[in-house]
């Protein structure tokens, strides 16, 4: 379906009707239907699961094994997670939920499974939602609506997915004008543009540019850490906002040794989860990034990855697509100081070792997810983003 | 060795200043330069050694390297100039230390004479860029400052663009060469509320992209706007391609009758369009990234690997813009913005 004023008008009218129905629904029943729909996609034996595996590689630029991994790691416990989410989203005592009349969700195209949490949250909030997906990567949301239509046609009418190409800001404005809550993923420039076009009373939750960093503590086992971080780097070809770009080795860890172990682990994981085809622009950026690594450090290159070891320098942002830097720090505090320099862009810190010290040492204003190495790209549906719970902005209450 | 190489470079520039190529001599010279520089410039030595381990030839030194480490075969105390990039969105500025500006001068004068001032000895220059005294680390300002000596009858420096520009242009009775950055011309478009008809024979040179700037304008659109604004034919609006990391410049040659928008590669520069993954040269007409080997880069590194997308068209190059790199895809990083 292409984006036209008429299509949008019809969609908004349908969503308005669906909103009435949605607000009367029990949250637990919504969670059940959502889970059933997502499970249809998770299961490769079912028709929509097969379609997902057929179509998503082309639109996401990920290989089929990577797509299969992304679907299974995101949707593996979807029923339990959605039930728990529904429970946590109950209104606080003494309040009555007052869902927004219309939500708008603007998705990005970097990690194809990112829509699972955000669409689920929107519907569990009982907010009829217009989902604007990238026109080049709207496959999973479309398949989800198809699945939901089969499982719970009534609920499916409360979510409208439209792939909109660039240059449709006018149409976007039509939708934004009606929204009471807008959640957007995208570049900082995109978020600023959206924010400038919404009304003063519209709740806005923006998830802008981000990256992850890693930390290997002195008492970590280097081989285990390398294998864990290799998964974090390989997942979604390091294109996620939580993907590690640089991994710090605490004093006492042989950084060059860790870099070699990481390269070996990346080579191994590439056999099971091959990288997607490198776009030309990324290849150009990769060439520059690797050049700097060689010029001031050591670089181990594989056919589809590279690991640099650059000594005691500040972490450097990678072009992604499995190019990761290893650097040295004195201790946790030094790591946190350099990590905190990324400010709100720091979305995730993977730790080989204890996470508590890192959590305590990060600067004020920085709120990444701090997790164990190997889990950076599998945050689960209940995970906070940018320090906010996933339902931030989506829940509203009438109080005394 | 340095003096011998320098003399060979100077001789080649002198020989090819009025066009033409001697690729055999250039190849030999670039090879000797690269080997000599690999012995003297530590980051380049590392890059060359890594390439040798992979079994490939001397690569170009990526421009990002110039932002992170010093690229020079001489100590800081021998620098006579340190040109810095205008800055990308990262705020990290590349630096090109120069021990000697004589080859830079030779190359810059020869190329500008060929592409911009072939039909005139000297003319009135109007410069929309900072004066060298205000921007001592800008290679563009340095070059335009030298233009004053080489090509100018007199020069008006109008930067930032303000009310002086219409005053200067409206009083011009002789042909004018209006020289500036693309962004300065965009700014002028925003400022000016009138058009001009510059005297016949006037010309415009615009250079540079929009790195770190808040506005971008497509080259064709800007060229048309300049042509209309200043009353010069589009063929008299010439793009210059220069980089802080280079000592030589590439120009469009529409003033010499070239009907196509493409960059003339001076005979002392080798331009290759390469595949960004394999670094192999791509065939004519195919898209790749531009590698330039500039023989006038004596005391740094002559082989420079850019991120500029380009296609080769015979002996000329057509630029397609800068490869944006790991473009922000969705909520993923904007490579540069994240470390601002």
Give a structural overview.
The complex is a heterodimer of chains A (400) and B (340). Chain A has helices spanning 5-23, 27-42, 47-60, 64-75, 78-88, 114-124, 139-151, 153-156, 169-178, 188-195, 222-234, 255-272, 280-296, 332-340, 356-361; strands at residues 96-97, 103-106, 129-134, 159-164, 181-185, 203-207, 211-216, 244-250, 298-301, 306-309, 323-329, 346-352, 369-372, 397-398. Chain A is of the alpha/beta class and 400 residues long. Chain A has a 7-stranded mixed β-sheet, with helices on both faces. In chain A, strands 4-3-2-5-6 form a 5-stranded parallel β-sheet, sandwiched between helices. A two-stranded antiparallel sheet of chain A has the order 1-14. In chain A, strand 7 (211-216), helix 11 and strand 8 form a beta-alpha-beta unit. In chain A, helix 1 runs parallel beside helix 9. The radius of gyration of chain A is 21 Å and the shape is globular. Chain A starts with a helix and ends with a strand. The mean pLDDT of chain A is 93. With 340 residues, chain B is of the alpha/beta class. Chain B has a domain at 103-264: 3-Layer(aba) Sandwich (Rossmann fold), CATH 3.40.50. Chain B has 9 helices and 14 strands. Chain B has helices at residues 2-16, 23-40, 42-54, 65-68, 102-115, 139-151, 164-170, 182-191, 219-230, and strands at residues 61-62, 81-84, 95-98, 123-128, 152-157, 176-181, 203-207, 237-241, 250-252, 263-264, 269-274, 287-294, 303-313, 316-322. In chain B, strands 5-4-6-7-8-9-10 form a 7-stranded mixed β-sheet. In chain B, strand 6, helix 8 and strand 7 (203-207) form a beta-alpha-beta unit. The longest helix of chain B has 18 residues, at 23-40. Mean pLDDT of chain B is 88; it is low at 210-214 and 325-340.
